[in-house]
Design brief:
The chain is an all-alpha fold and about 240 residues long. Helix content is about 65%, strand content about 0%.
Length: about 240
């Protein structure tokens, strides 16, 4: 009985969860109270609420992840096979990013950055990608939460490093882990690894958080120029 009730309300929650987020989950909580009471298991109220809530969020976030990554794969593939289609896919990507963000922000503002033990690795990655593909204001706002969870194994350390490096680059500072590359450092728009704070230590730092490739190996994979002595552009 419990599984049947849970499944029914999980499907229902997917339909209404955004509304519930905006209203702080009050209506959803009442529905769950009723559901668990009719199952004769009042003591499961909080566990049932948490389980259904996170299961519903996981499904929504995994859909976001697929949308975010699939359109970028189309763009990457079209650069090789059909460049004329590229601009169309970029337009679609902008629309997808905007739509994903409009759903994610109420979730984050209601629940915070959700531990991946509650929603799974894929859904946790959706949180990262949607914010990473947004703007500096939103990254500034949510990075501390991602960073804190990454230090206790509840978010990906590599993803936290990516966001930290991107924030530093966008603010005009040298990056720490060498994850960011740009076309803004050369007049010919060549892709170049953004300057790194401690190039002699960067590869050991990368290994410590789980990156398999060194900066130079990753630059080769990206087709980017890597100069350990690269300086910041003059302002």
């Amino acid at each position: 009985m419990r599984n049947v009730v849970k499944h029914f309300w999980q499907l229902f929650a997917i339909e209404i969860i955004i509304m519930n987020i905006l209203h702080k989950g009050c209506f959803f909580l009442l529905c769950l109270i009723y559901t668990i009471k009719i199952s004769g298991q009042d003591n499961l109220l909080q566990n049932g609420y948490d389980s259904i809530r996170y299961d519903s969020l996981r499904i929504i976030l995994e859909v976001m992840y697929d949308k975010d990554q699939n359109i970028r794969k189309l763009i990457y593939d079209s650069m090789e096979t059909n460049p004329n289609e590229n601009s169309k896919y970029v337009t679609q990507m902008i629309s997808i990013d905007r739509d994903n963000l409009s759903v994610l922000i109420p979730i984050l503002d209601t629940y915070g950055w959700i531990p991946q033990s509650e929603i799974g690795v894929k859904a946790g990655s959706a949180l990262f990608y949607v914010i990473q593909h947004s703007n500096i204001e939103l990254m500034n706002k949510y990075f501390p939460q991602l960073d804190s969870l990454s230090k206790i194994g509840e978010a990906d350390r590599g993803q936290a490093a990516f966001m930290q490096d991107r924030l530093l680059m966008w603010k005009g500072f040298k990056q720490i882990y060498g994850t960011q590359a740009t076309t803004s450092l050369r007049t010919d728009k060549s892709l170049v690894i953004w300057p790194i704070m401690e190039p002699d230590k960067v590869d050991s730092l990368r290994r410590s958080i789980g990156f398999e490739l060194s900066v130079s190996e990753n630059a080769k994979r990206l087709g980017a120029i890597y100069n350990p002595a690269e300086e910041l552009p003059k302002k």
